[in-house]
Design brief:
The chain has six helices and eight strands; from the N terminus they run ββαααβββαβαββα. With 188 residues, it is of the alpha+beta class. It has an eight-stranded mixed beta sheet with strand order 1-2-3-4-5-6-8-7, with helices on both faces. GO terms for molecular function: protein N-terminal-serine acetyltransferase activity; protein-N-terminal-alanine acetyltransferase activity.
Amino acid sequence: MNHIPVFKMEKIKLRELKTSDAPSLFQFMSRQDTMKYITPCPVLSLEEMEAYIEERLDGFHKQEEIPWVIEAERGKCVGLFRFHKLNHWHRKAEMGAVIHPDYQKKGVMTQVLLTLLPYGFDSLNLNRIVGDMFAENEGSRRLLNKFGFREEGVLRETDFDGESFQDTVVFSMLKREYEKIKQTFDQS
């Protein structure tokens, strides 16, 4: 894959991540409340944000991930979504997302998944897509349940959040499971 595809939906757009997105992403990826289910150490500087973006783009060039910026009205950067740990031989990937707090619980991730699950399974020909999260992340748990992901299990105390160890819940969807519900994506 030579370029990151652009997807335009009703209220949002997914486009390639660029180094010039650093200031916009830094506004919310530097916030502890935004990153609480991801890392205890949000990015601390614009330079660190730029380095993070460069790592994502390097991963894309190595065909190990696909990073998208999520844009809302008038091109406002409201999030980041990526397929990472992308393995073409094993035909699998993991999902990762960070959404600006003002856009959480507003259907942004529903639109993203309605677009990128078909892209992952149909265009990338993935067999397995994984979403894992801190056990306390009820919003992500509800979202993946809504889409038919199966809870595979809990990995006990996998991550330290700066205060305590957190369990990680692993969800997955297989291509054959996606095929059974694919028509619901077309109707949305």
